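Structure first, sequence second, as always.
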């Protein structure tokens, strides 16, 4: 997408991130944005913007760690966080409930979403107790979210991809066009 901040791309006149936030707002006690670079570009959302605590911008795992550390400091009563890429505008309205239920049923520490036969490694429930283990893995060069989850123990919660995949990730102009096509269905769907 030519280096543009994908979460700030407009979909139906609103940033992709605004769509995701609207769907997650009622499912969580707090929302934060994990992003490096100038935080003021997200000022319109009036949320904390967390930069990586690990140097070198090692990817999504560093953002998950930043979320864990923030939650532990600011909301010590919280035991888990949810991660969702900011360019995933249609998370299901029962995402958090179903990830939590799968964690309780499986007794695995991490639960990731799946749909249409695909694993969405960055759409996951993470126990904050994994923060030190995650920091150590990042220090040793681990970068793959799925690999870290599997190392810890991971269960899956499967979501229907009909009438649309709720985990569409906007990575290309074609994906954005697909999101525009889906938007009317997403507004009316009760997944």
């Amino acid at each position: 997408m030519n280096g543009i901040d994908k979460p700030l791309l407009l979909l139906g006149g609103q940033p992709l991130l605004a769509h995701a936030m609207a769907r997650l707002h009622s499912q969580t006690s707090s929302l934060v944005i994990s992003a490096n670079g100038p935080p003021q570009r997200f000022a319109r959302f009036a949320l904390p913007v967390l930069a990586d605590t690990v140097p070198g911008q090692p990817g999504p795992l560093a953002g998950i760690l930043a979320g864990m550390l923030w939650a532990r400091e600011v909301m010590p009563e919280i035991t888990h966080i949810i991660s969702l890429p900011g360019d995933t505008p249609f998370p299901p309205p029962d995402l958090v409930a179903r990830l939590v239920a799968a964690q309780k049923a499986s007794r695995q520490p991490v639960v990731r979403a799946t749909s249409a036969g695909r694993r969405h490694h960055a759409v996951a429930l993470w126990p904050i107790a994994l923060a030190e283990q995650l920091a150590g893995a990042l220090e040793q060069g681990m970068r793959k979210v799925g690999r870290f989850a599997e190392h810890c123990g991971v269960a899956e919660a499967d979501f229907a991809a009909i009438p649309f995949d709720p985990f569409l990730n906007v990575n290309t102009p074609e994906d954005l066009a697909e999101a525009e096509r889906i938007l009317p269905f997403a507004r009316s769907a009760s997944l």
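Margin note: The radius of gyration is 16 Å.
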